[in-house]
Amino acid sequence: MLPILVLVSALALLAACGAIYQAVGRARDSRLYPPIGRMIDIGGGVGLHVVEAGSGTPAVIFESGIAGSSLSWTLVQPEVAKFTRTASYDRAGLGWSDPGSEPRSLDRSAGELRALLGAAGIPPPYILVGHSYGGLLMRAFAAMHPAGVVGLVLVDPVSIDAWSTAIAAEMRTLRRGVTLSRRGPMLARLGVVRFALGLLLTGSNRTPKWIAKAASGRGESVASRLVSEVSKLPPRCWPMVRSHWSDPKCFRGMAAHLESLPANAAALRKLPELPRLPLVILSAATATADEIEERAALARACAGEHIVTGGAGHWIQFDEPRLIADAIRGIVERSRAAV
């Protein structure tokens, strides 16, 4: 009996120390890493964080991947801001933004973006740029509000064909991500996430991988891929990313978006076809043959352009930011010439 009491007491002490470590870290983060943009009240007690730069029309609106934030566009947005107005933002529950209502349906996500643009004073016309899951959301926004959209750039977008009829293998991958996300808040409150991310961002990955595996089975691959890509950001952004993902809110936000993926892919199929507007789709060198064909078919249907990169991974904005900026510039110039 005594050994069990000793073990329980040790675990309780460890948990208490972790919680204190987390509380001290959160207080430090709030002081050192405040929002880099504006917090905009979109109603219902929800504030969304938006980063603006540049001037001119059309405005370029950036939408991040399923676990991303405005920091995802750190290498691209400043380049585009040299020739037009830009805005990137954090979806509800991610980055500096407040949590939002669930489930994260297409209607809700598009409605929040429209409310944000209105409240922030960013009028159309818009060029929409979406990475991965953000590509799905930007396609939905363009279909719902075609009059205000003059161009679309999809950066290695998720497959609508695959996720609208998700097969067993894809659902297993999704469940691993959801499991990691749902267990993440508890680990974050105990300081485990903060500790693991600190190790990862200093180059040590054995302990963080073990923690992720213990939390979600094979989910360590999800965490490892995210950190591998984030490490391509300027080092000044790393502490901000650590701050975000040490907050239980961001895990709950990611879980909500992951859980909505199949339903939102199916819902996109029911929306009107995209209007014929300037469209550029950029595919990573790692894209599958099915993804390449799906994107090529969409480009043909919209008289758009499909470019397969030479060596970029899924986060093309980190590997080849200039390629994205050039694609946007081409659409901006076409839009201005048509006025």
Overview of the molecule:
With 339 residues, the chain is of the alpha/beta class. The chain has two domains: 38-165 and 264-338, Rossmann fold; 168-258, no CATH class. It is 55% helix and 12% strand. The chain has helices at residues 2-32, 77-80, 106-120, 133-144, 160-164, 168-189, 192-200, 206-216, 220-230, 238-245, 248-269, 289-301, 316-319, 321-338, and strands at residues 38-41, 47-53, 59-63, 86-89, 126-131, 149-155, 279-283, 305-308. The chain has an eight-stranded mixed sheet, with helices on both faces. α2 (77-80) links the parallel β3 (59-63) and β4.
CATH architecture of the largest domain: 3-Layer(aba) Sandwich
User: Class by helix and strand content?
Assistant: alpha/beta
What strand order characterises the main sheet?
1-2-4-3-5-6-7-8
Beta content: 5-15%
Total of DSSP H or I helical runs spanning 4+ residues: 14
CATH first level of the largest domain:
Alpha Beta
CATH topology of the largest domain: Rossmann fold
User: How far do the termini sit from each other?
Assistant: 81 Å
Which residues sit in consecutive blocks of at least 5 with pLDDT less than 50? Answer: none
* Main β-sheet description: 8 strands, mixed
Shape: globular
**Average pLDDT taken over every residue:** 87
Layout: helices, strands, pairs:
Layout: H1 2-32, E1 38-41, E2 47-53, E3 59-63, H2 77-80, E4 86-89, H3 106-120, E5 126-131, H4 133-144, E6 149-155, H5 160-164, H6 168-189, H7 192-200, H8 206-216, H9 220-230, H10 238-245, H11 248-269, E7 279-283, H12 289-301, E8 305-308, H13 316-319, H14 321-338
Parallel strand pairs: 3-4, 3-5, 5-6, 6-7, 7-8
Antiparallel strand pairs: 1-2, 2-4
